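Predict the holo structure. Ligand: zinc ion.
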Amino acid sequence: MPLVETEALVLRTYRLGESDKIVSLLTRHLGRCRVAASGALRTKSRFGSSLEPLSYVRVWIYDRPNRDLQRLGAAEMIESFFGIQSDYRVQVGTQYLAEVADAFLPEREVNERAFRLVLAVLRGMKVSGEVTRPLLYFNYWLLRLGGFLPSLDRCADCRSPLGTKAFYGSGSEGLVCKDCRKPTARNEISAEVLALAGKLRGLRLEDWLREQKSPPGTNQLRRFLEELIQTHLERKLATRELLAEEI
Ligand SMILES: [Zn+2]
């Protein structure tokens, strides 16, 4: 049984019996995978605090490729994101990040860019204490890397240019023009707000966060992309409502 050493982000943990944990990890070399960490719930666990949600860790995994659940041999902390979660808004932001990454990224599919994206978004929240811009950046790049980002200047139905306003609703996979709008497309989004997406294409998050203020429409664009993610997942995101209350 090969022992694989890789860097990983702890997405979620679940209790397994009295003293063990199941941990969903986003790893650099094995993609997203689930591991059993035996004894992780004991007070003197050899994993220490390294398995707290969203820790950036180095792990050693006993990899059995045909099994759903691998065994975690050891873990050590590289960078903790535990402290930033004392701010409730950031906590909700990190929970959203973990929930979406866990649900969206296919199991056992190595994706270096997605790994770097999640880490950059966590660091962005850590450095700035801000949630809106990091999560907009996350939603945008996650959809783009997955090939699910629709056209932002043409109608998804008739393919004509969208003009100054576009519309979407619950379950939308893209934007429609005013002629194709159905009653379910309740939300309106302006061309100005959509133009913000163009900015994200050529920008590193850390550079963007150095700019003083979040541009108008950041939150509106974030919500639209969040809708697309939820449509793609075909299920309700538990953290979405919490996020709506906070930002
Ligand atoms: Zn149309």
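The mean pLDDT is 94. Residues 155, 157-158, 160, 176-177, 179-180 surround zinc ion (CB under 6 Å).
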